[in-house]
Amino acid sequence: MKAFVAGATGQTGRRIVQALVAKNIPVRALVRDLEAGKEILPVEAELVLGDVLKPETLGEAIADSTVLLCATGAKPSLDPTGPYQVDYQGVKNLVDVAKAKGIEHFVLVSSLCTSKFFHPLNLFWLILYWKKQGEMYLQNSGLTYTIVRPGGLKNEDNADSIVMSSADTLFDGSISRTKVAQVCVESLMQPAARNKIVEIVARPDAMQMDWEQLFATVA
């Protein structure tokens, strides 16, 4: 297995890179700035230049990777096209190149509540709407996929147990980015994670389950 990570320097993406390195999985990390990437990412990761909004840069960057993990996301800004470009067009570009390169498994980090149009987050340039469009493009691509929809993201990890559920069943809660990264990497190993949307939060009172049990709970 060789992993390619888009959004590698983001808060969640860098944790995905770390989780892959911890499992001795070779990683190619997509960055727009090599120097900035070197400061953030572990030395074991191979940094490759490219941009999800420039599809012509992606084929060479993905190279001989066999799995792809996407943790890109529009940052809050005054640009009303940001979520459309990053959360839909960028994902679409990655999916198209992944198909052309024969990627075996595509893991996409999305968000809870993408199916709720009248959600307050959609006031930010329809961000959940465009995440949903990106999800659907991946689902209809023919690629093997896992779509991970986390609740509110926390930078600090804690001892709470992961709760995993089917699409459109969790609507609140939070989870650490470290746990999100673990779910993304484990989904590559678990047959029960294939072609599923998994919604995840973490709760102190949740029952602890192993990865196989967690993914098996999702229809």
Task: Give a brief rundown of this model.
With 219 residues, the protein is of the alpha/beta class. Helix content is 34%, strand content 21%. The strands form two sheets. Strands 3-2-1-4-5-6-10-8 form an eight-stranded mixed β-sheet, sandwiched between helices. It has a two-stranded parallel sheet with strand order 7-9.
Please describe the structure with a list of short key phrases separated by commas or semicolons.
eight-stranded mixed β-sheet; two-stranded parallel sheet; 7 helices; 10 strands
Question: How are the SSEs ordered, and which strands pair?
Answer:
Elements: E1 3-6, H1 11-22, E2 27-31, H2 34-40, E3 46-49, H3 58-62, E4 67-70, H4 82-101, E5 105-109, H5 127-139, E6 145-150, E7 152-154, E8 161-165, E9 174-176, H6 177-187, E10 196-203, H7 211-216
Parallel strand pairs: 1-2, 1-4, 2-3, 4-5, 5-6, 6-10, 7-9
Antiparallel strand pairs: 8-10
Helix pairs in contact: 1-6, 4-5
Oligomer: single chain
Please tally the β strands and state the result.
10
Give the proportion of residues in helices: 25-40%
| Backbone shape | globular
Arithmetic mean pLDDT: 97
Alpha-carbon Rg, integer: 16 Å
**Any low-confidence stretches, pLDDT <50, length ≥5?**
none
| SSE sequence, one letter per element | EHEHEHEHEHEEEEHEH
Distance between the termini: 26 Å
Strand content: 15-25%
